[in-house]
Amino acid sequence: TFAPDAPCTRAQVLTFLWRAAGSPKAESTENPFADGADSPYYEAILWGVERGITKGTTATTFAPDATITR
Question: pLDDT digit string (tens) for 19-57?
C-alpha cells in the first residue's frame, strides 16, 4: 500500500537516497554508531555519513527507527 502521509524513519529516507544513487558501496566499513550495525540499512547509513548527508542523533547513536518529517 502506498501511504504518502505515513511517517518514515531516518534509515528509510537515507535508504531512498542511497538507492537513488545506485546503492554504492561505502568506502568505510567502520560503523561510528552503536546502533544499526545489524540493520538492513547498514550500508545506506555508512554511505550517508561518509558523504555528509546525515549524521547521528549523538556521536554514537544514529537512531535508525526514529521518525522524521518529510
Answer: 999 999 988 878 888 886 777 888 999 999 999 998 889
User: What is the DSSP track for the chain?
Assistant: ---TTS-EEHHHHHHHHHHHTT-PPPS-----SSSSTTSTTHHHHHHHHHTTS---SSSS---TT-EE--
Helix 10-20 to helix 42-50 angle (10° resolution) is: 70
| 10 and 70 Cβ atoms separated by less than 8 Å | no
Q: Is the model's pLDDT at 70 over the cut of 70?
A: no
